[in-house]
Write a structure and sequence with these properties.
mainly beta, Jelly Rolls, six-stranded antiparallel β-sheet, about 0% helix, about 55% strand
Length: about 180
């Protein structure tokens, strides 16, 4: 697909928020995904079944609102810093997060450097069942890097309130 490449397989369980691929990726790296399998968006309900392209419905209660619910999606995550709230003693993680659509087959230019996770385009996953089998093809060529805008998420790992700010990275060069 890319010339020089390597591939790995990952099983994405539909009832967990995110599946760690174990991959650290680079900004601009080209990755090709091929997925199969099926999931139920509501365990026991045969009408709520979908493949990696998702169920033909979009809602406000899913990570990528303009794509089908239940579709295979990806997330690139980069931890910026960890702080401690002086009043509560709670740990606060400053993170960059970029989400992208995959579906059953898609080539994606990675939106930023970070760690790659895969998941289902749904926020309420505890009642889901099934899995997607995903083959990830990684290019061995140097990536093109471009200026992009990313969400900076300030989160507490204990489930505290999350606030989002925009951070604009201003760098553009080719390698």
């Amino acid at each position: 697909m890319f010339g020089r490449e390597r591939s790995i397989q990952v099983y994405v369980l539909s009832n967990v928020d995110w599946t760690d691929t174990g991959l650290d990726i680079e900004d601009g790296q080209e990755i090709y995904f091929r997925a199969s399998g099926g999931i139920s968006l509501q365990r026991g309900n045969p009408m709520a079944y979908c493949d990696p392209d998702g169920y033909p419905l979009q809602t406000f209660q899913q990570p990528i609102q303009d794509k089908n619910i239940g579709a295979l999606i990806g997330k690139v995550y980069l931890l910026i810093s960890v702080e401690v709230d002086e009043e509560t003693g709670e740990e606060i993680r400053n993170e960059l997060i970029e989400l992208f659509y995959i579906g059953s087959e898609n080539g994606v230019t990675m939106p930023m450097k970070g760690h790659l996770f895969l998941g289902v385009n749904e926020n309420v996953v505890a009642d889901n069942a099934g899995e997607f089998k995903v083959t990830i093809y990684l290019s061995e060529t140097k990536p093109f890097r471009a200026a992009r805008q990313h969400k900076l998420a300030r989160q507490s790992p204990s489930g505290g309130k999350t606030t989002l700010r925009w951070q604009d990275r201003r760098r553009c060069h080719c390698e």
